[in-house]
Amino acid sequence: MQVPIFNTYIHPSAQQRVSEVLATTFLSEGKLVKEFEAGLSSELGMVNPAALNSGTSALHLAMILAGIGPGDEVILSPQTFVASALVVSQQGATPVFADIQYETGNIDPADIEKRITERTKAIMAVHWGGYPCDMDEIQAIARKHNLLVIEDAAHAPGATYKGRAIGAISPITCFSFQAIKHLTTGDGGAICCLDPAMAQEALKRRWFGIDRANSPMSELGEREYDISAVGFKYHLNDYSAALGLANLTGFHDRMARRRALAKRYRQELVNVPGITLLQDAADRESAYWLFGMHVENRLAFIRALKAKGITASVVHDGIDHNSLFGGTREELTNQLRFNATQIHIPIHDALTEEELEYVVTTIKQGW
Ligand SMILES: *Cc1c(COP(=O)(O)O)cnc(C)c1O
Hints:
- The protein is α/β, with parallel strands linked by helices and about 375 residues long.
- The chain folds into two domains: about 15-250, 3-Layer(aba) Sandwich (Aspartate Aminotransferase, domain 2); about 250-365, Aspartate Aminotransferase, domain 1.
- Helices cover about 35% and strands about 15% of the residues.
- It contains twelve helices and 13 strands.
- It has helices at about 15-25, 30-45, 55-65, 85-90, 110, 135-145, 195-205, 240-250, 250-270, 300-305, 335-340, 355-365, and strands at about 50, 75, 95, 120-125, 150, 160, 165, 170-175, 190-195, 275, 285, 290-295, 340-345.
- The chain has a seven-stranded mixed beta sheet with strand order 1-9-8-5-4-2-3, sandwiched between helices. Strands 7-6-11 form a three-stranded antiparallel beta sheet, with no helix packed on it. Strands 10-12-13 form a three-stranded antiparallel beta sheet.
- Helix 6 (about 135-145) links the parallel strand 4 and strand 5.
- The structure holds pyridoxal-5'-phosphate.
- Pyridoxal-5'-phosphate binds next to helix 3 and helix 4.
- It comes from Hymenobacter ruricola.
């Protein structure tokens, strides 16, 4: 049996829906992008989503909307993909890493305050594996120090915190719809801004800085517009949106199934010696893009699973070690502990009950 760690979910209706777009020959941003955005709001509770061509574009646009520039600092968790910090560097600003919670892989609110300087502009919260960060505590620190909260929710579409949807909590939330994320448009992303004026600005900046809705075609055949701020080529296109719309069908059932699989894993693995499960608090629901845990003797664990055709992976270790970001921070002791023992096992839409049992049985045989 081969059990991969990820799969790319494509709803059966996607072929037809994408073909229809190809048949129209209207490929760029059009009515399907709008429809997809409406679906993100109605199905996932996202506020004012603007659909973009990647999660990285969403994070970079967040930097622009937050006014992050040279000399500024953004505090974030190292337990993420490099994109989270690269967008800070792209603006000539400095990513400042705070320590994480060993129990979740998320930023530790208690450590954030230690990292605040007069240059700090924003806090970026990354929901590792889809498990929501301590948003109340993070918002409280942000309010106290007048900082903006940006969520990197690349792993968290469908997650909730205290009954509220991720995408409806912080001033800015960014999503990724990349191929192995659990809601995919091939490549794509979205930015959600709570403030309607900022949401308008996001729409403008994603398309060269042109206000598309208010730039009528002149008789001469060109849109009438005036660019007043730097814009980008960050919008989603209609054939990607068609794939996204297809994949929104049944999203809640897929999410429920993912959570049921996670629950089974938790029941089966909670008492296995050498395994420590990550936290699962009652006040939030993970989107379970990943099923992570801590394992003693990790390399032996990976090899034992690999011998049975099962892929286990760290997915990402802390990103602070990259020379661009200044190299490993020895003071981030929880991140170092996390790096040493974290591991993820397969959880995705193609994972059958039988395969889950097989993974559990293999793990229980020891490593
Ligand atoms: C996937 C991912 C991104 C980047 O998203 P893309 O759509 O690939 O640009 C950003 N942050 C995290 C945490 C991710 O996992």
